[in-house]
Amino acid sequence: MNVLPGSSLPPKSAIDDPFALDALAVTDFQRDGHVAVRGLASAEEIGLYRPAIEAAVGKLALRMRPIAERDTYGKAFIQAHNLWTRSELIKAFVFSERFASVAAQLLGCSDVRLYHDQALFKEPGGGHTPWHQDQAYWPLDTRDTITMWMPLVDVPGDVGSMTFASGSQQRGDLGRFVIGDESELRFGELVEQLQLPTRTHGAMQAGDATFHQGWTLHCAPPNPTSLLRSVMTIIWFADGARVAADIGGARVFDHKIWLAGITPGELAAGPLNPLLWPRA
Ligand SMILES: O=C(O)CCC(=O)C(=O)O
Fold it and tell me: Is the distance from the beta carbon of residue 162 to the nearest atom of ligand 1 less than 6 Å?
């Protein structure tokens, strides 16, 4: 099923219920550029949405080449975007007021819009995710951008969650390297040179989440196990942000697809960017 953008908002359900966010999480996020929020969704809630997300990703996985034949980026995960447009159930998850309100509280802003969702499934034997900054890809003129990374399965320590360079978001754009061997090398060197403290939130349960800001440097370890590390992510930005003037390189795709080619300087509020907090 294709759920047309601009069609009705999903009916309210338990996934919209509020979450009592610890004030310390906001302080940590604003200082470090990342934070873990444990128990943001319950195991029962994940059990409700996971089959639909896995089925959508599974269709894509059938078309992928074997891991050994892919480049470093391709080995890192199976990536499937904007699943909310394919299923009403996934739309209810992605449009969750609970998730969007936590994102807004962490950013310290009143309203957030959807940038896009993406499933990131690291397969058994999948490679590392190289160091990178997400906002290198995002033509938005604001620093108020945030990703929620939520495992749909319990992730043990030997699979691991992301590693973040704490405070790196405060330095903004550190070089427009796309995800790959060069970004791993150059940002890895930079982390050492600048002696940026690195931190992982380690093992996670299904429904725990990490949140990181768009300029926070991050990477993730390979998956040496037989477990499929299925993760769903949602990216939001502060309402009122405008499309950045700088839309070259890696940003061309994002500008065309997620921001509907909106003219630089205009409000970033295309048909794929509904206001998710507060939700109309
Ligand atoms: O899931 C991963 O391995 C990396 C995820 C990531 O880079 C992100 O969500 O920005």
Answer: yes
- Any idea what the Cα angle at residue 159 is, between residues 53 and 22, rounded to 5°? 75
Nearest residue (by CA) to ligand 1, atom 9, is: 149
Phi first, then psi, for residue 25 (nearest 5°) are -60, -40
pTM for the whole structure: 0.97
Provide the Cα torsion 265, 6, 88, 43; round to 10°.
40
In a domain, 278, yes or no: no
- Contact indicator for 218, 163 with CB cutoff of 8 Å: yes
Any domain includes 244: yes
80: domain CATH number is 2.60.120.620
- pLDDT tens for 268-280 read 999 999 999 998 7
Place of tokens 């949140």: 211
Kindly indicate the confidence band of residue 3, based on its pLDDT and cuts at 50, 70 and 90: low
Q: Ligand 1 pocket, 101 CB below 6 A?
A: no
Residues 23-64: tens digit of each pLDDT: 999 999 999 999 999 999 999 999 999 999 999 999 888 889
Q: What is the pLDDT of residues 192-238, one digit of tens each?
A: 999 999 999 999 999 999 999 999 999 999 999 999 999 999 999 99
What is the residue range of 147's domain? 21-271
Cα-to-centroid distance, 111 and ligand 1 (Å): 24
In a domain, 93, yes or no: yes
φ and ψ at 69, to 5 degrees? -95, 0
